[in-house]
Specification:
The strands form 2 sheets. A 7-stranded mixed sheet has the order 5-4-3-6-7-12-11, with helices on both faces. Strands 1, 2, 8, 9 and 10 form a 5-stranded antiparallel sheet that branches. It has a single domain, classed as Rossmann fold (3-Layer(aba) Sandwich). The chain has 6 helices and 12 strands. It is globular. By secondary structure, it is an alpha/beta fold. Bound molecules: S-adenosyl-L-homocysteine. S-adenosyl-L-homocysteine (SAH) binds next to strand 4.
Amino acid sequence: MNNFPCVSTVKMSVMKKEKDPIGHAIADYHATGKSARLRVFSPMFDEDEIPVRTLFRPFDEMPAIEQEALKASRGSILDVGAGAGCHSLALQDMGQQVTAIDISPLAVATMRDRGVRDAREQDFFTLDGQFDTILMLMNGIGIVGSLSRMPAFFMQLERLLAPGGQLLCDSSDICYVFEDENGFIDLTGIEGYYGELTYQMQYKTIKGEPFPWLFIDADTLTQQAAAHGFKADIIARGAHYDYLARLIRRPH
Ligand code: SAH
């Protein structure tokens, strides 16, 4: 589940409805309990799809690293790229105070209808405010898109984290994609960082714009954090090259 790519923008804006495949899929599933296929294309892979039902997963169906992230959340919480609101709803059930943001207007409307009390159409990169915990789950840090955008990401993190605050994010190391039949991973000859991908989604006839998505491995995230004044701890590992990281400002 942690490999699903999701929608990101490079241009900072809320998405237009006619370009919002994931939002339409979420809205349909919410309204009817079913949906058409949410198709995902990437030059690097065969066509794939996101089972829309998983975007509505309750706490007990979440992967262990997501459950762990929710249990470690405290204070005022920001759920970035909240989708159908599964994590925000679980946190509200736990008595927590959470703000859910998403660039998909249909996802935000669905979240409100499902009972997320503070759901906003908002791009992470232009958000104002202060939070004790920032959550980026289901490979949520992928919205950064590429390593070249890490400085902008850390600048925004610096602005949004309250003193003593934490970022909890999960990601996958997709090195296994480059494994040969002998289990040998060969990353030579790959241009740029191997976790930088481009995706496009389609739901029914609604096709989104292609978008960059970053799968960052734990070592690279740790190095990036250190280079930008943060400290990363890998606090849990999942079953398939996925991990949960906590980032805090590096103590002076
Ligand atoms: N976190 C949810 C949804 C994952 S899909 C879950 O685990 O089920 C990723 C979501 O991120 C999509 O709904 C997409 O619209 C949203 N998104 C992408 N880029 C974003 C950005 N820059 N700011 C806020 N939300 C963004």
